[in-house]
Amino acid sequence: MTSNLFAGLPSTVTVDEQFATFLQRPGLRIERIVSTGQASPEGFWYDQDEGEWVTLLQGEAKLRFADETDARHLRAGDCLDIAAHRKHRVDWTAPDQVTVWLTVFYSATGITPGPTTPVTPIPA
Q1: pLDDT per position in the chain (124 positions), as tens?
Q2: Is the distance from CB of 48 to CB of 65 less than 8 angstroms?
Q3: Could you please report the per-residue DSSP string of 65-81?
Q4: Is 29 within 8 Å of 23 (Cβ atoms)?
Q5: How far is CA 63 from each of CA 27, 40, 83, 86, 111, rounded to the nearest angstrom?
């Protein structure tokens, strides 16, 4: 089955963020999160048992870590890896546009590393 990460995006601001799981396997979950101006509640910090690799596909957001002074301003194409139990929160998402996150949640104990395959350029 083929899915499109940009299908079903809201055309206007919504009250709640939208969450969609695209793939779930032992030790792995891939989700799309759609924000339209939402932020974490005041004083709330995510403290997750899983690691989280996140990329911003569209829009803008400010992500804050408890161990850093300033929030990181993320724009489309930015990505980062958040270690399990590293406290973080979303300070801001752009209220005038749709922000689309792609998140990969993973468990270090549930994933067996595979072999590294070198990338071979495709001839022109």
Answers
A1: 678 899 988 888 888 899 999 999 999 999 999 999 999 999 999 999 999 999 999 999 999 999 999 999 999 999 999 999 999 999 999 999 999 999 999 997 755 555 444 545 555 4
A2: no
A3: ETT-SS-EEEETT-EEE
A4: yes
A5: 24, 10, 14, 12, 26
